[in-house]
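Reply to dn_fold:

You asked what the input looked like. This is it:
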Amino acid sequence: MKILFDTNIILDVLLNRKPFVELSANLVSSVENKTIEGYLCATTITTFDYLISKSRNRETAKIEIQKLLTLFQIADVNSTVLTMAINSGFTDFEDAVQYFSGKCSNVDGLVSRNTKDYKKAILPIYTPDDLWSIISTHT
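and this is what came back:
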């Protein structure tokens, strides 16, 4: 199962955001142990760099990004993805970019705590609880 992780799921883990960190960490562990194939949108990586550098420091951001690059596949952002996103009717452009980068990478779905932002999605959009239930049932 190929799943694109919304930025907020990874930030839960990296920034230890309660009460979300435990479930989000379980999902990331599912990528580590290869239960699922995890994807991140390319723009998510730049967002992580900015936020982690700001909240901690640049060196920590670099270390965390290197870890993510070893765990996750990166879904491209190119003119096709951006054009699809801008013409999609999604209310949030960032979410549209993430969605279409995943769609163009042939993921099976996305995991996000903000499922309402993906009303126009055709691919399945899982809450962390929903995805964890699916993973737990199949392992």
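The chain has a mean pLDDT of 95.
Hope that clears it up.
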